[in-house]
Design brief:
114 residues; binds guanosine-5'-monophosphate; 3 helices
Length: 114
Amino acid sequence: MTEKTIFKRIIDGEIPADVVFEDEHCLAFRDVNPQAPTHVLVIPKKEIASLDAVADEDAPLMGHLHRVIRDLARTLKLEEGYRVVVNCGPNGGQTVDHLHFHLLGGRPLSWPPG
Ligand code: 5GP
C-alpha cells in the first residue's frame, strides 16, 4: 500500500488544517507557507495525484472545484483579483501528489511566474 499524502491525511482528519470551506467533494484550507496575504488550497476529496491524472469522468468534479474557487474568492473578499495555480509534475513545481488548486490574492501578483 502506498503511503497517504499529507493532503489525504488532512482530509481524513489525521492532521489539523485551517479549513475555510468543506463539502462532500472538496476541502479548502490555508496554505501552511503562504505566498500571498490570502493563500488557500482547494483539493478534491477524491484521490487524484495531479492534473495529469484527471480522468474524463472527473469533468463535473473539476467544474465543481472551479465554482467553489469562484465562491471562495468572493467570501475571502478578493475583489481586486486573484490567481489560481495548479503545479503539475516536477517541472511544474508540484510537491504534494494530490491535485490541488492554489488560490492566491490580497496583493498584486507579478507575471511571468519563476
Ligand atoms: P505544490 O508545491 O505541490 O504546488 O503545493 C503544495 C503546497 O502545500 C505548498 O504551498 C505547501 O506550503 C503546502 N503544504 C505542504 N504541507 C502542508 C500542510 O501540512 N498543511 C498545509 N496547510 N499546507 C501544506
